[in-house]
Amino acid sequence: MNGQFRDTPHSTASSASQQAHVAGDSSSQEKAAPTNSFLPQDDRSVTSAVVTTAAATPQAIPDNLVPDEEEEEADEVDAASNLAVGPPRRALPSELYTRIAQVGEGTYGQVFKAKSERTNVLVALKKIRMEAEKDGFPITAMREIKLLQILKHQNVVRLHEIMTARGSVYMVFEYMEHDLNGVLNHPKVHFTPAHLKSLASQLLEGLGYLHHKAVLHRDLKGSNVLLNNAGLLKLADFGLARLYAKGRTGDYTNRVVTLWYRPPELLLGATQYGAEVDMWGAGCIFLELFNRRPIFQGTDEISQLQVISDLVGPLTEERWKGMESLPWWELVRPHEPQETVQDAAEAQETQDQQHSRRRLSLFETTLTPGALKLAEALLTLDPRKRVSAAEALQMDYFVKEKPKARLPSSVLSSLKGEWHELESKRARQKGRA
Asked: Cα–Cα distance between 386 and 265 in angstroms, integer?
């Protein structure tokens, strides 16, 4: 399947802020090479299946997520059209895409907002970085393509096709106007408790689906949680994701997950893990929804463990049996003076009391009792006791506590511009200038 691509002149950008970020020459067009020609022979059928998926599965809105009742009548009409059940609009195969603006950048490459010229559908073009690859196509991109072929859920970003242009390889995704980092850093965004519950529910619904499919995301963070103006949340960036062995022990790398969202077992060198590593990240994001900034901001593995213990309590064998047998425990274990068993018990009791008061002083004004219990369950030190996504969705915060979850469509659709992590960084830099 062939695709075509060209840059757009500045005048086609959708807003003044986006026009400043447009790069490239509008005068050239190229017909792309066959999309599966850059893959090993064994993988061509996999990518072909991704590319030739002409009709996406209808994206029904979950029953527990309803549009915001506070919207104005005109907004309700727009939201209703955005939330209509049915196949999402998508670009056709062999499309010609006009690039509008850059909306993301990382070690993987760059992400651009683009529009298909035949259908006018907005897409995200993820340019895969090839410069440092000595052995052909990057394994992270290959893994992401294979996994996205089998993942079809309303809370997982949809891959439309793969294309090549000017020697570069692009993954073509559905377009989402915002990511969680960009939105939470926006001073005019104020989510209601019902909106926050909706976002938390959608995050856990997406994770529950991934784990049901035996997929570990392994890179949950705000910039990988996408939002659109209809209030829908979708998990994205599966470059570190992988299938895992459900029901039996697997041996995987511990060099995954961004530091601030990395669970304590990986910080201590564990290589045998499962879905619980994603649930820790979900707990970090859950608190971030209320706090509007990352909760655990360490500078390295040792300081990260320290800020974790400052909030959720000390790392002790009593709280996490088997912790001291993890590979890197000796590198980070605290050095304490000799003390009697009674002294240790009294000191532990005092420390727990102090920790309880510190935790309540931090979150009792922002979290309901149900939300606090959910956070504690997601951020349990012992991974074997950490709740699953399915269990979390059955906790009181979602089932019993009011208000009911409502899609934050009124807040997101009223934002001026589109807010991803890249835009929020540029806005902060401009403010400091």
From this structure: 12
| Residue 409: count of CB within 10 angstroms of its CB | 26
Query: pLDDT band at residue 32, thresholds of 50, 70 and 90?
Result: very low
The H or E element spanning position 330 is: helix 329-332
Domain with 117 in it:
4-38+46-54+93-175
Same domain? 200 vs 315:
yes
- How are beta strands 4-7 and 215-216 bridged, if at all? unpaired
Supply the DSSP symbol for 383: G
Those residues whose C-beta lies under 8 Å from the C-beta of residue 336, and which sit 6 or more positions away, are none
Q: How far apart are CA 273 and CA 275, in angstroms?
A: 7
Q: What is the CATH number of the domain that holds 164?
A: 3.30.200.20
Cβ atoms of 65 and 212 within 8 Å: the answer is: no
Task: Give the mean pLDDT of the chain.
Answer: 77
Pair (146, 223) in one structural domain: no
Residue set of the binding site for ATP: 126
CA angle 177, 179, 180 (to 5 degrees): 140
Active-site residue set? 219
Strand pairing category for 96-106 and 4-7: parallel
Grade residue 433 by pLDDT with cuts at 50, 70 and 90: very low
- Dist CA 181 CA 41 (whole Å): 39
pTM > 0.85: no
Binding-site residue numbers are: 126
Confidence of residue 26 (pLDDT cuts 50, 70, 90): very low
Residue where a domain terminates, one of 126, 153, 175 = 175
Residue 384 CB-half CA count within 13 A: 9
The CATH number linked to 194 is 1.10.510.10
